[in-house]
Every structure is written in C-alpha cells, then in structure tokens.
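Posting for a labmate who doesn't have an account.
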Amino acid sequence: MDRPWYIPLIAVMGAIDMFILVVPTDGFMLTAVMARPRRWIAAALIVGLGSSVGAGFFAEAIHLYGETVVELILGPGPRSETWISVMGWVSEYGVWAVGLVAFGPFPIHPGIAMGALSGMSSVSVFMSVLVGRVIKNIIMCYIASHTPHLVGSLFGVRKEVKEVQQVSQD
C-alpha cells in the first residue's frame, strides 16, 4: 500500500469502477492514505481524477450507444418511476446535480447515466464529477491522514476499509 504505483493504480480502478460497479475505491484510497499520511492530498486528487475520467468515458459510451449501455451496466432502472423523476431533477439542475451525486456517499453511476441521457456533454459530466469527487476525497483523505481513528465513522466507508485491510492481510 505504500508503493509509489499504488495510488495511480487506485485511480485506474476508479475509472474501471464506472463500468463494473464493484471496486471499493474509497476503501483502497483511505488505506493507502493511512499507510502514507503525507500523501493525502495527492491521493485525493489522483483518485478523483481517475473516477472522473471513468465517468467521462461512461457518459461518452451512453452518448454513443444510449440506454443499451445503461441497461447493461445498471440493469433495467431507466424504466422505473424513480429513475424518470430523478432524470427530471438532473435535467433541471444539470452539472450541479451530477456534482452533488459525485460528492455524496451513494453510487454515482445513476447520476452519470441520467446526466448523459438528458443531453449533458461528456466534458460536463467529467468536470462535475471531478469537482464533486475531489472535494469528497479531500475531506476523507484529510480525516484518514490526520485522525485515522475517525475513518470508521465516515458514512459507508467502514465496510470498504475493513474489506481492503482483510484482503491485504491475506
């Protein structure tokens, strides 16, 4: 976890996560920061950039192939009433809504899909995810580097950190 290639690898995994939905990038990032606390800002920026690149490619794939990509990755969600109402919210608030989803503790994939399906450009998706993820990562990495005992209290992160620590011990 303290190798120089580890944080860029997490960034690549963050980009890939936009297509496979199973990579605990927050857990990997936080354990890397706890192993090398002085690199917390680099980790926050690099992993945020990786997730944003993946989000931009995911949005571009949706622009090229439409709902087929969304259904392949997320399932048949676009036909539900909730999906349609949230899509209206993203259409109304645009990049702000996608950025807020990127900042939040929940999966970002539906927000990206709704943004792309509502006509938001891939660059706009990239930028809004970059801002949201970098702010989120800076907060989490600061906590992990300065007060690691509080990492477990971050919403949704405790499970990811334990999974990563368990895998690294095996």
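Reply:
Got it, the structure tokens are right above this. Residues 6-161 form one domain.
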